[in-house]
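From the pipeline queue, job 12 of 40. The input is one protein chain; the requested action is below.

Action: predict structure.
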Amino acid sequence: MFEAHFQTFDEPETGVALAARLSAFREELKRRKLTGFVVPRADQQQNEYVPPSDERLAWLTGFTGSAGLAAVLASEAALFVDGRYTLQAAKQVDGKAWAVESLVDPPPESWLSQHLKSGDRLGYDPWLHTSAAAERLAAACAKAGAELIAVESNPLDAIWTERPAPPLAQVSVHALRLAGEAETEKLSRIQREIDKLGADALVLSDSHAVAWTFNIRGADVAHTPLPLSYALVPKDGRPTIFIDHRKLSNTTRDHLEQSADVRQPDALASELTTLSKRGARVALDSATAADALNRLITDAGGKVVRGADPVSLLKAVKNGTEIEGTRAAHRRDAVALARFLAFIDREAPKGRLTEIDAVEALETFRRDTGALKDVSFPTISSTGPNGAIVHYRVTRKSNRRIQLGDLLLVDSGAQYEDGTTDVTRTMAVGEPTAEMRDRFTRVLRGHIAIARAVFPDGTTGAQLDSFARQFLWQAGLDFEHGTGHGVGSYLSVHEGPARISKLGSTPLKRGMILSNEPGYYKTDGYGIRIENLELVVAADIAGAEKPMNRFETLTLAPIDRRLIDVSLLSPAEIDWLNAYHARVAREVRGQLDDATKAWLDQATAPLAVK
C-alpha cells in the first residue's frame, strides 16, 4: 500500500569486512610513515549530509550518524560521537576494535594527547578539517611531543577501491517568486558585509551560501537541495562561482552568468593564489572553510580574515516571500500529517504495523500533496526502546512491530520548493503508563514555554534554552540535545547560525525560523519529543520600553491529548494548547476526507480542567 522513495532501510556494513578495512588502513599509514590518522565525518564543505563518495567514517567504522570522528593509531582506535549517538555507536561498531568516546566533553584532542607518543606522526586531510579543528589537533600533538602532518592525498581513499564517484546532479534555478530577492541585491548586501570585515574578498565555502546567493538549487547530497560548489566574492566587482560545468544546463548557466563568472572547481586554487600574491585580505568562514584554503592563501602571501560567514546570518533571516512560502508549505504538510496521524491511530492498535510501515505511510501521504521534492532528513520512526535512541534510523534488522502500550515517536520533515518542514509527534498506542504521561506533560510544558516566550530583541538561544528544560529539571530529568535549530528555506533543515541550546550565542532576529523540540528518553524504555517550527516575529506589547519578539508557530498537527496529565498544566498552558488545536482544526479540516475530519475533531477537542 505504501512505499518510501527517499530513504532506504539497508543495514550498515559490519563484521569481517570492517575489520579488514581497519587492518588495511593501518598498513597504508605505515607505508606513508604515519603513526596515526584522523578521519572526520565530513566533506570539503562540512555539510551535514555528505555524498556517498565522502562517507569515509561510515565505510571505515560502520557508524552511520551525522556527526563523529575516528582516530586510528598503530594499536588503538577510537570513535568519537556526541550524546545523540552514544547508543547507536555502541550497536554499530566493533567494540573490540574501537573504543567509543565523547566528541564534546572531553573532546577527541584530549584522548589523542594521552595516547600519542613522542615522535609520533599524526596525519590529517586538510580539505576535511577547518583551520580551528586543525589547530586543536596540532595542540594535542604538541602536548604529546608528536607531529601533525597535512597529507596531500587521503590514505583512506587509497584503500577504498570501490569508492563512489562524486555527484553530478543537475542544477536548477530557484525562481524569484520563491526566493523573494534577486542575486544582484543579495550580492550588494554581501559586498557591504565584506567591506565591514575589512576584507578584499570572501570565499563562500558553504554550498548553502552559494545556493542562496545565486538562487540555485541542486541534488548532490541527500535530503538537501544543494549543488556542491564554491564562490569567490570580491568587495568590488564581479564574483566567480566554481561548479562542475556538467551540472549546468544552458538555462542555468545563463542564469549564473548574469551575475557571476562561472569556472570549474579546480580553478578556485589558482584564483586564490593569484589574489593572495597581491597581499589580499581574504575572508574565510571559520565553520566551513577547509584548512587547505587557509594554508593556500597564507602560503601565497595573502592574509586570512577568519570569522563567521556573513551570508549565514543574511540567509537565516527570511524575507516576506520566503515566510509566506514556508507558511504555505506547513499548511500543505499539515494535511499529510493529519492523514498520517489518523492512519496510525486507526491501524497501530491492531498490532500489524512496524516502524518501517510508519515511515512509508508518512512519505506516501506527503507525496500525495503533489509537491514533495524530498524528505528533509531520514524519518525517525521509533517505538518502545528504539525511541530512546535520539537519532535512531530504522533498518530492516532493527525494525520493530508497534505494540499496545508503546509510544511511537516520529520525527520527520519535507522539502517543498516554497519551504522546508520538520515536525515530531509522539503517539500513544493503547493505554500509556502514568510515568509516560508525566514525562510527556513535562516535555509539553517546556514546549509551550518556548512557544509562549516573549523576549527582548537581541536575546540568544542560550537564554531561552532553560525554558524548555525547567519542568524536567524539577523531576531530576533532562535531554541530551539542543532545544532547537535553525531551518532553511528549501535548503538545509538544520541551518545556522541561530539555535536554541546551551551553546546558542547568536541573537534571534525577526524572520528566523527555529525548531522547538524538547524531549525525554528513557534508556531501553521509550522516547518522547514534541517539535514544531517557530518564526521569530515582533511582539506588540503596550508600554514596552524596548523592541520585543515572540514566536509564531508554523507547524499544524495535533498533539496527543491522551498523553497529557491535565492536572500538571496551568490554566495558561491549557489555553495555549486549546487555541493551538483550534487553529489546527480551522486551517486543516476543510482539506480532509470525512473519516479524517472525524478523527481531527476528536484529536483537537478542547482540554477541560480536571
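Job complete. The first helix runs from residue 16 to 31.
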